[in-house]
Amino acid sequence: MTWPGSPYDPLTARRDRDPMPRSGPTVGAVTHVLVTGGAGFIGTHVVTALHGAGHQVTVVDAGHPGAHRAPLPDTVEGAPLRRIDLRDQAAVAGVLAGVDVVVHQAAMVGLGVDLDDLPEYVGCNDLGTAVLLTEMARAGIHRLVLASSMVVYGEGAYTCPRHGPARPGPRTVADLAAGRFEPPCAVCGTPLEPGLVDEQAPLDPRSVYAATKVAQEHLTAAWSRQTGGTVVALRYHNVYGPGMPRDTPYSGVAAIFRSALEAGRAPRVFEDGGQRRDFVHVRDVAAANLAALNATGTRTGWRAYNIASGRPATIGQMAAELARAAGGPSPVVTGEFRLGDVRHVVAAPARARTELGFRATVDLADGIAEFASAPLRG
Ligand code: UD1
């Protein structure tokens, strides 16, 4: 069922003519921005970009042990940091006075360790978001930028050469164990050909984390309809760059490979290394947040955007490039697999270009060369 203003089909007939119709404050005016998760990998770069654009920034972060092994600093890029868990309603209410826009980066990410993580994922990501939305409404704050993720799509877009567009289900253990990594056509079994996934693709979360991101999208869409507030949801693809946390069960592949190389170990590439992703540099992601912040001042409604470089790479290519740049051992392709993993997710970046004016500028080779020696966070 399509639901106008919802994450399922943001391009309703009305929005086709005029997505997120305009009204509200002037773009570029100095605003007071609250960044949640502002001491994290992406949040820190967002704070830097907001300062660079002249905004007043308040930073909150829970310092969750899954993301932070070291104690939180007192400031982030010069902005005072308040240690707040978003599930603490009184604390959230206490930081919203005078805030114009919330940029909500705080979340537990990754595949996690096991199902014991489930309540904490839902608590941090969904209960935390619910409390934030309630208190924003009470404080009369109508503008929100949400850090979402490409994980909401599950598998990317595929085509069968004989049967056309396809949406493959989760791959079976038997197929993966036999090295059949490409999802098959449900009709004829032929390996599907991957294509570009755009924002109208159905949501199909395949992990607990992905389910919490879908829930965040729906909660914010309901909030937008009920309050008349504006939400821009940024579906990040695979973000990498300076300040990534060291290897943890919650890390993305770039941090895992970089941590291995730092320890003198070869990156271990799962499956056959041919799985595709879009690696987007964290400074580009910060710039996308700035563009999204501006959009919340000129439009109303709920809208999602892929935030990607538009230049896909395979995991094998990325590992090889990073190992070369770091002067470390060459990657090993192991054939191992993880059940929660999808095969290919490659973004269509056009909507963010045309509507937000966002275009990634960091070339993968340059970004990887920098990342190979950039500091990781403890
Ligand atoms: C990742 C993140 C997700 C984030 C999204 C967008 C995880 C588990 N997923 O999704 O939180 O929202 O990017 O930024 O953190 N791989 C290896 N060797 C390893 C680890 C992984 O080859 O040591 C492979 C995996 O099998 C997979 C690919 O690398 O095929 C990407 O893995 P990963 O970064 O963990 O997950 P994504 O699904 O891309």
Give a quick rundown of the structure:
The protein has 378 residues and is α/β, with parallel strands linked by helices. The chain has helices at 13-17, 41-52, 89-95, 118-139, 173-177, 208-227, 253-262, 282-296, 315-326, 350-356, 364-371; strands at residues 32-36, 56-61, 75-76, 79-83, 101-104, 143-149, 158-160, 164-166, 193-194, 230-236, 238-240, 268-269, 276-277, 279-281, 301-307, 313-314, 332-333.
Overall description:
The protein has 378 residues and is of the alpha/beta class. The protein has helices at residues 13-17, 41-52, 89-95, 118-139, 173-177, 208-227, 253-262, 282-296, 315-326, 350-356, 364-371, and strands spanning 32-36, 56-61, 75-76, 79-83, 101-104, 143-149, 158-160, 164-166, 193-194, 230-236, 238-240, 268-269, 276-277, 279-281, 301-307, 313-314, 332-333. The strands form 5 sheets. It has an 8-stranded mixed beta sheet with strand order 3-4-2-1-5-6-10-15, with helices on both faces. A 3-stranded antiparallel beta sheet has the order 8-7-9, with no helix packed on it. Strands 11-14 form a two-stranded parallel sheet. Helix 7 (253-262) packs parallel to helix 9 (315-326). The longest helix is centred in the middle third of the chain and has 22 residues, at 118-139. Bound molecules: uridine-diphosphate-N-acetylglucosamine. The site of uridine-diphosphate-N-acetylglucosamine has 24 residues, from strand 11, helix 7 and strand 12.
